[in-house]
Every structure is written in structure tokens, then in C-alpha cells.
Design goal:
alpha+beta; Inhibitor of vertebrate lysozyme, Ivy; 2 domains; 9-stranded antiparallel sheet; 3 helices; about 25% helix
């Protein structure tokens, strides 16, 4: 996908995610709140300033559900971040290369060695594994310790 098209698609997706009116579950168990700059936890602002130093937070939401709290953060350079209730990063979506500093070392080494002409545009931490997406659309899964599991060619 061309960068311009991917930029447009991600921008539209981000806008839908962040600007769509939030609806609660039937039992009222979901609640999303837009955060002001002063309400954004310092762990999140520190993470952004450390790893995305040329970017700024344009929108931050705190969502409370039965399963806990999550924070969705949109940056001005088309990155979307998600933090769990412990304020740990669990997902990063972008349209361009993610900063090397946000990718676990073993995963970065694997991608650099095996896909030297590709860059990581998305990273996600699941319960039992980690996943990255490359700019060619390939999704790579890794164990939590960084060992390669499999390739998914979408």
C-alpha cells in the first residue's frame, strides 16, 4: 500500500477510534473519558517524550471496563499507543517505522537480520506472545522472550 494511502487510512481509522461517540455496554460496564494534558499519567508522557521525542500527544482517552483500565493515546505523527492499567505499553500502531527503542532487542535483531529492507510499523504485546507488522504487510509472531514463532503473510 502506498504511504499516502496508508497515511489516509490510518488517519481515518484513528479519527474513528478517537472521535466516535463512545457507547457503553448494555450493562453500563464501559466508560471512556477524554483526558486533559494534566490528567495524562506521567508514565505515559514520559514514554512518549523518551521514544517519540519529535511527536506530541494530540488526544488521550482512559477507558474503564470490567477487565480493567486502558489508555489510548494518539500522537501527531500518526502513531497510536495503548497502555494497560499498569501504565505499560501494550500496542503501538504506526504508518512509518517505529523507533528502534520501542522494539524489544531480540525482535529488532531478528527483523534487521531477516528483513533488512523492511521496517516495523506496528508492535503488540499479547498475553502469550508479541507480534510485529512490517511495512510489507507481513506479521511476525514472537514468544514473550523474543524468540521467533511464525510468519503470517496477510
Amino acid at each position: 500500500m502506498k504511504t499516502t494511502t496508508k497515511t489516509t487510512v490510518l488517519s481515518i481509522f484513528s479519527a474513528l477510534v478517537f472521535f466516535t461517540a463512545c457507547s457503553s455496554d448494555d450493562d453500563g460496564s464501559s466508560n471512556e473519558v477524554l483526558l486533559t494534558d494534566d490528567e495524562i499519567p506521567s508514565e505515559i508522557t514520559t514514554y512518549v517524550s523518551t521514544h517519540f521525542d519529535t511527536s506530541t500527544i494530540t488526544r488521550a482517552e482512559k477507558e474503564t471496563e470490567n477487565s480493567g483500565i486502558t489508555y489510548e493515546v494518539l500522537l501527531d505523527l500518526n502513531y497510536q499507543l495503548e497502555f494497560n492499567s499498569d501504565l505499560e505499553i501494550v500496542e503501538i500502531d504506526g504508518i512509518t517505522a517505529l523507533p528502534d527503542s520501542v522494539i524489544p532487542e531480540l525482535i529488532l535483531e531478528y527483523v534487521t537480520t531477516n528483513y533488512p529492507n523492511q521496517v516495523i510499523t506496528d508492535w503488540e504485546l499479547e498475553t502469550n506472545y508479541q507480534q510485529v507488522e512490517l511495512n510489507n504487510g507481513y506479521e511476525l509472531e514472537f514468544e514473550l522472550n523474543g524468540d521467533f514463532i511464525r510468519l503470517d503473510k496477510d
